[in-house]
Every structure is written in C-alpha cells, then in structure tokens.
Amino acid sequence: MAPEEPKPSTPPAVYLGLAFCLVSVVWWFAYYAQYGGAFSLLGLKVACIGFATPECAFFQANIRSAIPRYVPVLWYAGMVTLAFGVWQLWRQRQP
Prior knowledge:
Blueprint: H1 12-32, H2 42-45, H3 54-61, H4 73-92
Keywords: Membrane, Transmembrane, Transmembrane helix
Transmembrane segments: 12-30, 42-61, 73-90
C-alpha cells in the first residue's frame, strides 16, 4: 500500500476573496436595510450587491446615513481574488 500524498493547502487568495465578499455583503446589508427595513424589498436589493440597477439608484437617492454609500468594489475584488485562489488550487492538483 502506497503512502498517501499530503493534501495541498488552500491558497490564501481563497480566504482573502471570501473575506472581501463577506465584508461586502455585510456592508450591502447594513446600507440597504435602511430603506424600508432589513428584509423589505429584498428581491430588488439583492441585485445591488454587484450591479447598479435603477432600483439601486432610487434606494441610494433616498437613504441618508452615516454608513458610506455601498459600491460593489469589494464584491468585485473578492470575486477576482477568489477566482485567482481557485485557479491556484486547481493548478496545485494537476498531475
């Protein structure tokens, strides 16, 4: 019986990408919860995580808050970083 190969470690880019996405979702939720409540119009607000829809522009025009206006820059940074980490993981597992 051959000894098992050690499993490759998960690249830090995966964890960093997930962290960026998590921070982005928390920021998005905290910002858009101010318009009509946390779960009101959630179907329209979900698109605002990564896109600028007319509904998002309307919500932003009507929110006055100390929380900075949500922009999806962290979401995109998280997606790119996560994709890079997944690519690194895929490359590690190639024979």
